[in-house]
Structure formats: structure tokens, C-alpha cells
Automatic annotation (TrEMBL):
Domain NADP-dependent oxidoreductase: residue ranges: 16-258
Name of the featured protein: Aldo/keto reductase
Molecular-function GO term, any one: oxidoreductase activity, acting on the CH-OH group of donors, NAD or NADP as acceptor
Transmembrane segments: none
Gene3D superfamilies the UniProt entry points to: NADP-dependent oxidoreductase domain
UniProt entry keywords in alphabetical sequence: NADP, Oxidoreductase
Similarity field: Belongs to the aldo/keto reductase family.
Superkingdom, natural source: Bacteria
Organism: Aquibacillus koreensis
Site entry: Lowers pKa of active site Tyr: 74
Residues that, per the record, bind substrate: 107
Keyword Lipid metabolism attached: no
Catalytic residues in the record: 49
Length: 281
């Protein structure tokens, strides 16, 4: 496994396992146990996913020493604000059955996320959080948060995949020492990513799948990835991306797939903003 070093010195696996949309508790527990058993050491969950308890049970049952695992969760919009966020993070620790969380992110930049971040800063200073960061923050809001808080976010988790490569956003993150992390590295199957001819042509040279090429492309750009699957064989396949390297020509070819717009939603779209605000109330 390759690791990245965050801006506070904490080391984070560059490839982890995400549990978004694994809503069934038993299935989620089984999936996390499978992921850990095949070598994953980073697990990404969130308050909004409703499966922190299942993740916690799997961690406990895995038998893997706590210090070998890197666990991420996220504070949801409805838990924003200093006191509410602090309480919700304590509840997440209880659900996960952990004394500390390796990384806590603000899930979306809505409601009183300044209060949320200051609660995270205090819990970070108390040692209950090893690193803190954000998710779905566009460069403008990220820069604003950095300038008016004590702790620079260690991570910004944003939609990133071959069709939305976020190169300009990554430049800003690199400038401030914020690690870029990809959610949806497979674009949730959109644009026929698993049969895309460009990715296929690159993969054939290395006997690798489209999914493996997509992950490898992001990894070579120093982006943390957290692919999700409920299939153990796919988990193994997604881990098998450290024994080949894309050439500059390969990288340029994949770069040409960038459509420079989200495959899901824009937080500049007022109707989408209204939707998320509604979820926070």
C-alpha cells in the first residue's frame, strides 16, 4: 500500500474503501470485514450513510490492531454548528466503538459549517480526531475557511474521476497543502466508464480493467481514492493497482476524457443548493 502524508504529518492510505449507499447493516458489516480481510486499511463512512455502527462492528471483529486502520467519517448538514457538531462527533465515536477517528470531514458547505469546523478543531486538539478536513468544498469556500481558522484542512474530498478531473481545484489544494481525495472515482458507472474505449485501450497494455486504469490514473496524480463495491472479487481487483505504471502518453490520453463538469450536481445550481439545505433542516 502507498501512503500520502497529510499536512500535519499523519499518514493516510492512498487507496481506501467507501461504504456510501451500503444501507443494509448486515451487508455493510460483511463488506467492511471483506475489505479489511483483503488488505484495505482505510474505511470511509459518514453520519448521513447510516452505517457507522456496522463499520464499528466490523472493525472490532476484524482483529486488526487499531493503529493499522485509518477511519474517516463526516459531519452531516443537520448536525452543523459548534455544540451540535461536537455532540454528533462524540456519537459517531460511540457508534464506531472508537476512542479516536483518524479523519473527520464536513460533509457539505452548508449551515453553520464554521461552527462545525471549530468544534472539529477543539476535538483535534484534544486528540479525539487525528486529522480534520472538508468534503465538497469548491476552491473559493476552501480558501475562505483556510484564511479564518487555525487548522488548515488536511483533506478535501470531492467528486473526481476521468470525466471530471478537477485539475484547477487540485492546484489550489496543493497551494495550501490540502490533500485531494476522490469520491466516485468510477463516476458511479456513468458515461459507460467500465466499457470506455480509451480506458480499455490503455488497460489492454497492462492486462488491467477500465476500473483499475481509472484508479491508477488518479493515484498517479497523488489523489486518494475510495472505490466502493459490495463484491469481494472487485475489492481485490481494485487493490491490484500498484504493480503497473501509466506512461506520460497514457496519462495525457486519459486527461483528454475530462468534460470539466460534474457528472452529478453543481453546488452553484440554486435548485441543488435548495435541495441540500432542505436535508439539513
Amino acid at each position: 500500500m502507498r501512503y500520502v502524508e497529510l499536512n500535519n504529518g499523519v499518514k493516510m492510505p492512498i487507496l481506501g474503501y467507501g461504504v456510501f449507499q451500503i444501507n443494509d447493516q448486515e451487508e455493510c458489516e460483511r463488506c467492511v470485514l471483506d475489505a479489511i480481510s483483503v488488505g484495505y486499511r482505510s474505511i470511509d463512512t459518514a453520519q448521513a450513510y447510516g452505517n457507522e455502527e456496522a463499520v464499528g462492528r466490523a472493525i472490532k471483529k476484524s482483529g486488526v490492531p487499531r493503529e493499522e486502520l485509518f477511519i474517516t467519517t463526516k459531519v452531516w448538514i443537520s448536525n452543523a454548528g459548534y455544540e451540535t457538531a461536537k455532540k454528533s462527533i462524540e456519537e459517531s465515536l460511540e457508534k464506531l466503538q472508537l476512542d479516536y477517528v483518524d479523519l473527520v470531514l464536513i460533509h457539505l458547505p452548508f449551515n453553520d459549517y464554521y461552527g462545525t469546523y471549530r468544534a472539529m478543531e477543539d476535538l483535534y486538539e484534544a486528540g479525539k480526531l487525528k486529522a480534520i478536513g472538508v468534503s465538497n468544498f469548491y476552491p473559493d469556500r476552501l480558501m475562505d475557511l483556510i484564511q479564518f481558522n487555525k487548522v488548515v484542512p488536511a483533506v478535501n474530498q470531492v467528486e473526481t474521476h476521468p470525466f471530471y478531473q478537477q485539475k484547477k481545484a487540485q492546484e489550489i489544494m496543493n497551494k495550501y497543502g490540502v490533500q485531494m481525495e476522490s469520491w466516485g472515482p468510477f463516476a458511479e458507472g456513468k458515461n459507460n466508464i467500465f466499457s470506455n474505449e480509451t480506458l480499455k485501450s490503455v488497460g489492454e497494455k497492462y492486462n488491467k480493467s477500465n476500473a483499475q486504469v481509472a484508479l491508477r490514473y488518479l493515484i498517479q496524480r497523488d489523489i486518494v481514492v475510495i472505490p466502493k463495491t459490495v463484491n469481494k472479487e472487485r475489492m481485490i481487483e481494485n487493490m491490484d493497482v500498484f504493480n503497473f505504471e501509466l506512461t506520460n502518453e497514457d496519462m495525457e490520453l486519459i486527461a483528454s476524457l475530462d468534460q470539466e463538469e460534474s457528472s452529478f450536481y453543481s453546488l452553484h445550481d440554486t435548485s441543488m443548493v435548495g435541495f441540500f439545505i432542505g436535508l439539513g433542516k
